[in-house]
């Protein structure tokens, strides 16, 4: 049987259509990734990849292997996860993948509800493991069965590559991104959004962050003069930069509402500049551990 990691390599290549992007996703160099795909082709005894065109596609043999590989990787991941979901002392473990800002805010609140509100799912003897990172890596964790649940942002500018046939979701919350500026001594915005006026310094996000794609989609059509100044890999850092008066940033209303109410920050642009988004909780359709199933059911019932 082929090494499981080689099957995961094929899945990454099919998902990205690029040797370079797939290598990044698998955390190996481009040449090393190419050698691993060739090793899989040698094992299969047939070419699996059409390399002449971009994006890269799979041959008929590659597509056939991909279908089986996806099933094998998911099933092995689920079995592995069920075995490892009981710690050394026999405690049940709930494993959750999410972004750093969500882990600090919405996910932390959700875990607290599971711990303290009836029906109490996270009772004595249970544990929670949080895995944070970029969305593409977290999706892979869910696909490989390394986590029970994935909590992430959803917006038309994003694409969560999870098949509806194998995964389902519920919406945990809705929020909106709002452009904000530090308030001056008179309570007015230090920077404003002006059509053709003086450019305001822009605080935006790096390419690996989901918010970069959401905000980037809006910036492509905005009429306002904005000059990129700070690029951040976290919402918390962007929030801090705005609070220090370094520029304008689109930030979640749930993060800045209190600052705006007390006059530290000022929301700009009105409703036309707000960007609505969802926070979703994903899971495999296959049965999870008893603890994960209980957490999912309790969350769904509270939203009903």
UniProtKB/TrEMBL annotation:
Xref: CDD domains: PBP2_LTTR_substrate
Stored InterPro entries: LysR_HTH_N (IPR000847), LysR_subst-bd (IPR005119), WH-like_DNA-bd_sf (IPR036388), WH_DNA-bd_sf (IPR036390)
Keyword Transcription (UniProt): yes
Pfam families in the record: HTH_1, LysR_substrate
MF terms (GO), sorted A to Z: DNA-binding transcription factor activity; transcription cis-regulatory region binding
Domain HTH lysR-type: from-to ranges: 1-59
Swiss-Prot/TrEMBL keywords: DNA-binding, Transcription, Transcription regulation
Family note: Belongs to the LysR transcriptional regulatory family.
Record-linked PANTHER family: HTH-TYPE TRANSCRIPTIONAL REGULATOR, HTH-TYPE TRANSCRIPTIONAL REGULATOR YJIE
Protein name in the entry: LysR substrate binding domain protein
Organism: Achromobacter piechaudii ATCC 43553
């Amino acid at each position: 049987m082929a090494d499981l990691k080689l099957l995961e390599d094929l899945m990454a290549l099919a998902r990205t259509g690029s040797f370079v992007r797939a290598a990044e996703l698998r955390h190996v160099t481009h040449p090393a990734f190419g050698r691993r795909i060739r090793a899989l082709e040698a094992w299969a005894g047939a070419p699996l990849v059409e390399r002449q065109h971009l994006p890269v596609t799979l041959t008929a043999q590659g597509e056939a292997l991909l279908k089986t590989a996806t099933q094998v990787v998911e099933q092995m991941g689920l079995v592995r996860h069920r075995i490892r979901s009981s710690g050394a002392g026999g405690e049940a473990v709930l494993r959750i993948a999410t972004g750093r800002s969500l882990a600090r805010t919405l996910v932390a609140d959700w875990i607290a509800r599971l711990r303290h509100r009836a029906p109490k799912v996270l009772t004595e003897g249970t544990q929670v493991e949080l895995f944070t990172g970029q969305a593409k890596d977290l999706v892979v964790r869910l696909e490989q069965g390394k986590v029970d649940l994935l909590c992430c942002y959803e917006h038309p500018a994003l694409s969560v590559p999870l098949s509806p046939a194998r995964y389902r979701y519920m919406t945990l919350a809705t929020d909106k991104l709002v452009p904000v500026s530090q308030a001056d001594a008179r309570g007015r915005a230090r920077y404003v959004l002006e059509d053709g006026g003086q450019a305001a310094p822009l605080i935006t996000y790096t390419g690996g962050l989901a918010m970069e794609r959401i905000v980037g989609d809006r910036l492509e059509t905005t009429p306002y003069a904005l000059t990129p100044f700070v690029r951040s890999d976290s919402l918390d850092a962007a929030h801090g930069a705005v609070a220090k008066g370094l520029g304008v940033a689109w930030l979640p209303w749930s993060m800045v509402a209190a600052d705006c109410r007390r006059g530290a920050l000022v929301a700009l642009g009105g409703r036309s500049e707000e960007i609505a988004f969802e926070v979703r909780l994903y899971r495999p359709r296959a049965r999870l551990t008893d603890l994960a199933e209980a957490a999912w059911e309790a969350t769904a019932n509270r939203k009903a």
